[in-house]
Design goal:
The complex is a heterodimer of chains A (156) and B (303). Chain A has helices at residues 3-13, 30-37, 72-75; strands at residues 19-26, 46-54, 58-66, 86-91, 94-100, 106-108, 111-112, 128-134, 137-141, 147-149, 154-155. Chain A is mainly beta and 156 residues long. Chain A has two domains: 3-100, Aspartate carbamoyltransferase regulatory subunit, N-terminal domain (Alpha-Beta Plaits, 2-Layer Sandwich); 106-155, SH3 type barrels, CATH 2.30.30.20. Chain A has a five-stranded antiparallel beta sheet, with no helix packed on it. A four-stranded antiparallel beta sheet of chain A has the order 6-8-9-10, with no helix packed on it. Chain A is elongated. Chain B has two domains: 31-128, 3-Layer(aba) Sandwich (Rossmann fold), CATH 3.40.50.1370; 131-285, Rossmann fold (3-Layer(aba) Sandwich). Chain B has nine helices and nine strands. In chain B, the strands form two sheets. In chain B, strands 7-6-5-8-9 form a five-stranded parallel beta sheet, with helices on one face. A four-stranded parallel beta sheet of chain B has the order 2-1-3-4, with helices on both faces. In chain B, helix 3 crosses helix 4. Chain B is globular. Classes of the chains: A mainly beta (156), B alpha/beta (303). Chains A and B meet through loops of A and helix 4 of B.
């Protein structure tokens, strides 16, 4: 069987009619992506796959969502933990658009401030950060004004 | 109209600074102006800070305002477990202005979001204390006659000291400042501030001891080297006596030079300096009342 045919067959298994395929998610962050996008509360048909081989990531995860299309603001939230994620927009079984995620200028919720003395870690408050560097990520807390660096980032 | 808070010194522009300093000079000439007559101000001190609280409460009294509040969290509903959100929301229903001190960083910014009335940050943990910065600026203006071309020496804990960071940011709004940092390596001015100065093309120099270099200073801004900042107590023992300013060191300093300190001091300024006319820290504290009167007037548009 040719590689191309294999690929086609593989795709067919879980092909969707209309919707969005999110590809190249690091496997270990699949459940965080699900939680950030609130997929656990969605009624649409969703297929999750994890631990696929990936040249870039070693191991990747995929999410296929039927009849779901994201706004940029919404999907860019996952850029913090799935930097290389790619979106395939599907209509009538065809990929009609490919998109990459971009780190937004502001991050609301999602990330915990690293500073234990920050008010956001002591009371129920939605965190808010200004992105002051995208690579590596540096987030400045709106409240305590301290900078959370990428290696200190904890997803809420 | 959007309400005006004072949370971080960088929330304000140079125009705001100048307006507040002009008002402070006016209050110094005539401290009792009953501009707050009929108004109530909340003074919410979630941690004790006698100096700052008395300074604010004096300012409010001199303006003819009434004060409600508490001077430590133990005597407030916080001890029953009330959130900052709820305390702020409730108090904001009663008063025209909130002055707040809180041990957690970012608490003042959050309170300002929750409250319908203006909030003045009187210190939020190690983060910001903007009224201290404005009174420092007023003290520099008063003693030097200008805020331009000032050579400032900052001495002591430059790593954690919020007062030096805020003063640095504020002074860069003025013409041609020069900064000299004197600190042990462990407590050196953080890179981000040095980078900020570099980007703005502002000159700064770093030293590890107090010596003849202070003879160029217009202002020496002393801070405490705090023992609890050191991981290793031996390191503290090594540096604790390096940064003590003594009277004999001031012999060849400039006649216009003045020594500032946010107080309380421990041992970093020897008492023999107190009688030197260059010691300005007690007058600096008095300037705090005028400056806070000015800040309140600016925020509530009283003048």
């Amino acid at each position: 069987m040719s590689d191309q045919l294999k690929k086609k067959l593989k795709l067919k298994v879980s092909a969707i009619n209309n919707g969005t395929v999110i590809d190249h998610i690091p496997s270990e962050n699949l459940f965080k992506v699900i939680s950030i996008l609130g997929l656990q509360n969605m009624k649409n048909q969703i297929t999750f796959g994890a631990n696929f081989e990936s040249e870039k990531l070693g191991s990747k995860a995929i999410i296929k969502l039927s009849d779901v299309f994201f706004e940029d603001d919404e999907i860019n939230k996952i850029s913090l933990i799935a930097r290389n994620a790619k979106l395939n927009i599907i209509r009538d079984y065809e990929v009609v658009e490919k998109r990459v995620v971009e780190v937004p200028d502001k991050v609301i919720g999602i990330v915990k401030c690293f500073n234990p003395k920050c008010i956001t870690n002591n009371e129920e408050i939605t965190t808010q950060f200004t992105v002051i560097s995208k690579n590596p990520l540096d987030l400045k807390c709106k409240y305590c004004e301290k900078i959370t660096h990428e290696h200190q980032m904890v997803i809420k | 109209m959007k309400k005006r808070d004072l949370i971080s010194i960088t929330d304000y522009s140079k125009e705001d600074y100048l307006r507040i300093l002009e008002l402070a000079a006016d209050f110094e000439k005539n401290p009792n102006q009953r501009l707050l007559e009929g108004k109530v101000v909340a003074s919410l001190f979630f941690e004790p800070s006698t100096r700052t609280r008395l300074s604010f409460e004096t300012a409010i009294n001199r303006l003819g305002g009434r004060i409600i509040g508490f001077s430590d969290a133990g005597s407030s509903s916080v001890s029953k477990g009330e959130t900052l959100h709820d305390t702020t929301k409730m108090v904001s229903n009663y008063v025209d202005l909130i002055v707040m001190r809180h041990p957690l960083e970012g608490s003042a910014r959050y309170a300002a979001e929750v409250a319908d009335v203006p909030v003045i940050n009187a210190g939020d943990g190690a983060n910001q204390h903007p009224t201290q910065t404005l009174l420092d600026m007023y003290s520099i203006l008063k003693t030097q006659g200008t805020l331009d071309n000032i050579n400032i020496f900052m001495v002591g804990d430059l790593k954690y000291g919020r007062t030096v960071h805020s003063l640095l940011m504020a002074m860069t709004e003025f013409e041609n400042p020069i900064f000299n940092f004197i600190a042990p390596e462990e407590l050196a001015m953080p890179e981000e501030y040095k980078l900020f100065l570099k980007e703005k093309g502002i000159r700064y120099f770093e030293h590890t001891e107090i010596n003849d270099n202070i003879n160029h200073a217009d202002i020496i801004y002393m801070t405490r080297v705090q023992k609890e900042r050191f991981m290793d107590p031996i390191e503290y023992e090594k540096v604790k006596n390096v940064y003590i300013l003594r009277n004999h060191m001031l012999q060849n300093t400039k006649p216009n030079m003045r020594i500032l300190h946010p107080l309380p001091r421990i041992n970093e300024i020897h008492p023999d300096v107190d009688s030197n006319e260059k010691a300005y820290y007690f007058e600096q504290a008095r300037n705090g009342v005028y400056t806070r009167q000015a800040i309140i007037s600016h925020i509530l548009n009283l003048k």
